[in-house]
Amino acid sequence: MKQGFIIIVLIGLFFPIPGQNPPQDKNWDTVFQDAFNTFNSGLWYRTYGAHEAGTTREGTSFRTYDNVYIENGKLVLQVQDTISPPCLPQNGVCKYGGNHAYTSGAIMSNIRYGYGYLEIYAQLPASSGYFPAFWLWYGENNEVTNNCWAHEIDIFEAKGSKPTIVTCNVWYQFKCNSAYKQWGAEPNPCNYSTGYHWYGMEWDSKKITWYIDRQMVRQEPNNMDDVGIQNPMQIIINTELAGDWMTDNPIDSTTIFPNYMYVDQANVYKLKYECDAIVNEILNYNTFNYAVKKSISLSSVSSLFSGENVSLRATDFIELESGFEVPEGAELYLDINPCE
Length: 340
What we know:
This protein is mainly beta. The protein folds into 2 domains: 7-27 and 272-336, no CATH class; 30-271, Jelly Rolls, CATH 2.60.120.200. Helix content is 0%, strand content 43%. It is built from no helices and 22 strands.
């Protein structure tokens, strides 16, 4: 069986492009697109309490409902230098009670989402101590489960003291003894606090791919401990104060209050599948039924025209036979995907 991963671009010379994403790739269906014109309680809920991934270290902020609001078509997540109220959420459960020196804002998705492409368009806070993030979590109410860390994919994490750096990370635990983390890549420097940027991730049963401004920055096999992160997970968007444990990002006299993370858009997509379909030529790319096929074979009769931007995906193989051409000015992206 032929299998592989092929990328072709011709702009005078062959040159590989780093990947495709749903706005450019017709193989994706939209799960939701939230422009935050209002707070959509059907998609999200405001979180409450000091459960920042199960830590109670001094300095960690306490999430309150009033730090999450919509303003000028943006989701605003605020951090304030205010003493938190007693921990009395609506369900009467709060693992980490007491008063905290700062309050912050976070939202979580109402349901868990599985494989797909997830992205937000956001502007991050600068200033020492801040710790904004966009991540997936498999646990109960953002807490550790049965003393296990469970699973986490950080689409990005950032430090307010270093506004030109973001990282993309993976936490995983399958044996309930200790948590393991794959530290992430640091994309090319850019001041992420002075404008909006796209932060995205494509996730399937075989690989995890991270994007900044819809350009691929990292890809890892999804096979940690020969298992990989396969469970649907909740989406979390938050900004916090990191606390004393993050020594290179301390809360100090330069820390600005209040401060904000702004989110203009949050999107989730899933691939379309026709995993039994065998394609033996594509005569018109405009009318082609895009989805993950079983296999695709193309000859000269399927050559692209200049200016066409085409993404093709299959489970077994994609074969470009002798005579197939990608002319100057056209782009062709080919990917091998599991049938989920």
